[in-house]
Write a structure and sequence with these properties.
Radius of gyration of chain B: 28 Å
CATH superfamily of the largest domain in chain B: P-loop containing nucleotide triphosphate hydrolases
Number of strands of chain A: 1
Number of strands of chain B: 20
Radius of gyration of chain A: 21 Å
Distance between the termini of chain A: 34 Å
Structural class of chain B: alpha/beta
Largest sheet of chain A: none
CATH architecture of the largest domain in chain B: 3-Layer(aba) Sandwich
Structural class of chain A: mainly alpha
Order of helices and strands of chain B: EHEEHEEHHHEHEHEEHEEEEEEEEEEE
Strand content of chain A: under 5%
Distance between the termini of chain B: 32 Å
Oligomer: heterodimer
Order of helices and strands of chain A: EHHHHHHHHHHH
Largest interface: A-B, 47 and 56 residues
Strand order of the largest sheet of chain B: 5-6-7-3-8-9
Shape of chain B: globular
Helix content of chain B: 25-40%
Largest sheet of chain B: 6 strands, mixed
CATH class of the largest domain in chain B: Alpha Beta
Helix content of chain A: over 70%
Shape of chain A: globular
Number of helices of chain B: 8
Chain lengths: 280, 409
């Protein structure tokens, strides 16, 4: 029989045990994560008339808005060889992936508060379930993007297969920022509200629906925005075939990996302290 | 006695904050200490904190089932959460061997839109069961829940009883080494409750450990062989379930004060005094004297007297009508109940004095006097009256067992 010891000591005192517990929990949380995914996805779309369309509607509508602005010559940007509608939809599809992965951890933890305060289960399951649900909604969006590509007869480069790399970085980056916000966000509802407010401005300083300008304040800001090389790499891999910002993306990936470890440890250490205060 | 120890609690303390503001700030402090690897046993309180548990030690062996009792805020649920590993102790050490499942909130994680069938799988996963284990248990769970064709309807259309039945069915079939149960045993109708108890006995007989938190001493007496009474975060008494329950009930009864009221409607009633024993043994006689002092004569006096228990249920009520008489100045009603076979507990006496008609009340004394009924420690104290009926058992026309003559054997 398995023996567990609970003391007041910080798990960081025994890093070996902590890491082995972390990876064990990731494994053992899969069955639960899977059930949560099935539960949330089937429940989310069962009581809607449009069903899975809801995964893509926000993306389609925002893209349509940008396409209209571009068509009216209000927004003029250099979209290279590809038509602007494809350009905008591509940007929005991957932007939504980032936004959803940013929101997922806090949403998952908050909707399962009751479960957290009553039952001891591997808490990684909530994060995993969030990631898979974000990916699921992303795949539906990809279908729409594929239809657009066919409609506009835009050819893809073979490098499009490598797009999985920047997508993983985007997903991981969004998720880990989201995880880092959990400890405060679970106690103060401001965080979830604030996230919604901060996302639109963030989009404007990221080359989502327009290309980064070469000079001016926005150009400076975009230069230091870690999301910029990611979005450029995604578009380059899909439509240009030359991964110009690959090295920047690799650096961002390594930094993200480091923060993933930190964020994961904080999440594990924080939850017992937070659970204590959940139903207080 | 050679059974292995499954739960070993050594000098556990847990502090909580009363104020939300402090609690959040301390939470951030605690997290900082955790991150720096500095957290260690603490035996001091910060402002606005109190000890939810202080220096609690106990051991639970395999096959034991223990009941945790005590007032609200005594630390029962905190102890359960610590054993479950949901929260961290402030000081001390808990060693838990074997799988633990908490039957705390039934139906946790259910989604109202999904069907009972789908929710069973989710619930099982939350309890930590693999998909394969759940598939094997699945039919048994559905059958146990008695939900029939409702199993395929969304649970939002279930009654609360049906929901509880489904939740309990999943939980009880997860069959861990240690079950932590918090006040959820009485679910569904009587039939279902009996089934639950039977399942729990089965679990116990196979060496499973139960830690049951409840206010109900009856649940502890029937499900546990050992009880622990917690008071203000400390163990008040730990031992045989009957003994601890008895001590706890006596304590509650002493503490429990039903507010007494005295109304002298008629100014001419100068005083009413009731003389009675403070303590009697169940089955003894109870003598009550009611001394009335009145300034004016009372025609055809009527006395009503009732005896109620701590939950203010009236158990005995009598009317003593002295027609065609008159009392003046001093009068004494003497009442004797032979063989007062009440169960153990505290009882209250209420009485009214009326003139000619029962509604014409001159004075009313509600729950003003109390007395205690005692029984031997092994007596459960369930029900209201302690009666000893004659009984016999016959099989194939032969009486094989018969109660001995007399009220108490």
């Amino acid at each position: 029989m398995k023996t567990v010891i609970y003391t007041s000591e910080s798990p960081l005192k025994h890093p070996r045990q902590l890491f082995s517990a972390m990876f064990q929990d990731i494994r053992s949380s899969w069955p639960l994560a899977w059930q949560l995914i099935v539960r949330d996805i089937s429940a989310q779309y069962r009581q809607t008339a449009l069903g899975y369309l809801w995964a893509v509607l926000p993306t389609i509508i925002t893209s349509a808005l940008w396409i209209f602005l571009n068509y009216s010559q209000i927004i003029v940007t250099d979209s290279g060889d590809i038509p602007y509608p494809v350009y905008a939809l591509t940007g929005m599809t991957f932007w939504q992936l980032f936004v959803e992965s940013l929101n997922a951890p806090l949403t998952e933890v908050n909707t399962n508060r009751n479960m957290l305060s009553k039952i001891n289960f591997p808490k990684e399951a909530l994060i995993l379930s969030g990631i898979v649900q974000v990916l699921f909604s992303f795949l539906i969006k990809l279908v729409i993007l594929a239809i657009m590509l066919v409609a506009f007869q835009v050819p893809l480069y073979w490098t499009a297969l490598l797009v999985a790399f920047p997508v993983s970085v985007l997903l991981l980056l969004g998720t880990i920022i989201g995880v880092l916000l959990v400890p405060v966000g679970i106690l103060y509802r401001d965080i979830q509200q604030g996230l919604g407010v901060i996302i639109s401005p963030l989009m404007f300083i990221t080359p989502v629906v327009y290309t980064a300008p070469t000079e001016g304040i926005l150009a400076q800001i975009m230069l230091y925005n870690p999301l910029t090389p990611l979005f450029e790499l995604i578009r380059d891999l899909l439509y240009v075939g030359i991964p110009k910002t690959l090295s920047e993306t690799v650096v961002i990936f390594l930094v993200t990996l480091f923060f993933t470890l930190i964020g994961w440890i904080i999440y594990r250490l924080a939850l017992p302290i937070l659970i204590e205060r959940l139903d207080a | 006695m050679g059974q292995p120890i499954l739960i070993n609690i050594e000098n556990i303390s847990k502090r909580f904050s009363r104020s939300l503001k402090h609690s959040l700030w301390y939470g951030i402090q605690d997290l900082g200490q955790e991150m720096l690897g500095m957290s260690k046993d603490t035996n001091t309180l910060r402002p606005s904190e109190f000890w939810a548990l202080k220096d609690v030690s106990l051991q639970v062996k395999q096959g034991e089932s223990i009941g945790l009792m005590g007032h609200n805020g005594a630390g029962k649920t905190t102890l359960l959460k610590l054993i479950n590993g949901l929260i961290k102790p402030s000081a001390g050490k808990i060693t838990v061997t074997g799988s633990v499942r908490a039957l705390i909130a039934l139906g946790t994680g259910f989604n109202p839109i999904l069907t009972g069938r789908e929710n069973i799988l989710i619930s099982g996963a939350i309890f930590g069961l693999s998909n394969r284990e759940m598939r094997n248990l699945y039919d048994e769970i559905v059958e146990f829940s008695e939900l029939g064709e409702f199993i395929d309807t969304p649970v939002q259309s279930y009654s609360s009883g049906m929901l509880a039945r489904l939740g309990f069915s999943v939980a009880i079939h997860t069959w861990p080494d240690i079950f932590l149960i918090d006040e959820v045993l009485a679910v569904g109708d009587l039939n279902f409750a009996i089934k639950c108890y039977r399942k729990i006995s089965e679990f116990r007989s196979q060496g499973g450990v139960i830690v049951l938190v409840t206010h109900n001493p009856y649940a502890i007496r029937t499900n546990c062989d050992r009880a622990i009474w917690l008071e203000h975060g400390k163990i008040q008494k730990d031992g045989d379930a009957n003994e601890v329950c008895g001590a706890y009930e006596q304590f509650v009864a002493q503490e429990n004060k039903v507010p007494g009221e005295k109304h002298f409607v008629d100014d001419n009633i100068e005083n009413i005094e009731v003389v009675h024993p403070e303590i009697i043994n169940s089955g003894d006689a109870l003598d009550i004297e009611i001394k009335i002092r009145t300034r004016r004569p009372i025609e055809n006096p009527i006395l009503t007297l009732s005896i109620s228990n701590v939950s203010t249920h009236v158990l005995i009520s009598n009317i003593f009508s002295a027609e065609k008489t008159k009392i003046n100045n001093d009068a004494v009603f003497r009442i004797r109940y032979e063989n007062l076979n009440l169960v153990r507990g505290i009882y209250y006496i209420s009485l009214t004095v009326s003139d000619t008609y029962i509604n014409n009340q001159l004075a009313a004394l509600l729950n003003t006097y109390k007395f205690e009924v005692r029984t031997p420690a092994e007596d459960y104290g369930v029900g209201m009256f302690k009666l000893a009926p004659q009984w016999e058992l016959e099989t194939n026309g032969i009486i094989v067992k018969k109660s001995s003559v007399g009220i108490y054997e």
